[in-house]
Amino acid sequence: MVAGIGESLWDCFPGGRRLGGAPVNFTCHCAQLGAEAYAVSRVGADPAGTDMRRAIVGMGVNDGCVQTDAGRPTGVAEIVLDANGKPTFRIVEDSSWDALEADPAALDLAGRANAACFGTLGQRTPAARAAIRAFLAAMRPDSMRIFDVNLRQSYYSRDTIEASLRSATVMKLNDEELPVLADLFGLDGTPGERLAALRLRFDLDLIACTRGGRGSLLLSRDGRDDHPGHPCRPVDTVGAGDAFTAALCMGLLRGEALSAINDRANRIAAFVCTQSGAVPKLPPELSG
Q1: Which of 251, 198, 189 is nearest to 225 (CA)?
Q2: For the segment 211-255, what is each residue's pLDDT rounded down to a tens digit?
Q3: Which terminus of the chain has fewer Cβ atoms in its 10 Å neighbourhood, N or C?
């Protein structure tokens, strides 16, 4: 059983809207990979919120911990893509997920979940930050807590990142986020040395660093695996990192070798880049 906790929103592309929000994307991909998956978020009491629930359930994700906010609208992110399909986000403030609560349903799920994924954006308000921290604190000591850094605009701080790392057992970030963290924590050396220093400082079981089309590096307590990536022609890269995190999570829960996890995660992320939107349907050879 896995959960994604934090923001839920509609990704608004020039050609229309698509389901989005990193924790929601994560759960949708985990569901496709065979997990019993739950989204923990909050939507508005508006048509967009109704549509989002329908879309989440349609991806095989349980919406029993998706709360409804009568006073705030369902989240929206306006997306502009560059020539390589790389997105720029403008995320609307004071959205329903900013008022996320650690209600009894969420805390009950926390105590039963084998893994949960969270990031920085979902913690941009004190209320939502407190809810996410309460959820993580209610999880079993042996559960996996994945911190997907996911820096967006100015919605993060050193305090939030450091507290998140101290709550996590696994961290996932990309090669653009690594220099930000290196600066915050005074880390020198090669990317691999910086990642190793972060893993040791926060006593993490594993760190994953993605590098776009150049693959990814996994560093664990017991070893490392460096994957060159799988070539693809991107339509847009939205959600590729979330798909990678989902494949990483499922592989770790199943006790697979780092090399197998890294290869499959890169294959799935590359496929997502060739599709429009964050949560396309995976082909059988990737989801089976």
Answers
A1: 251
A2: 988 999 999 999 999 999 999 888 888 889 999 999 999 999 999
A3: C
Cα 108 to Cα 65: distance, rounded to the nearest angstrom:
10
> CA triplet 39, 141, 63: central angle to 5 degrees?
10
Query: Which residue type, as a one-letter code, is found at position 55?
Result: A
Q: Spell out the domains of the chain, with CATH numbers in brackets.
A: 2-278 (3.40.1190.20)
pLDDT at 52 over 90: yes
Residue 19 burial class via C-beta count within 10 angstroms: exposed 0-12, middle 13-18, buried 19 and up: buried
Is the distance from CB of 73 to CB of 44 less than 8 angstroms? yes
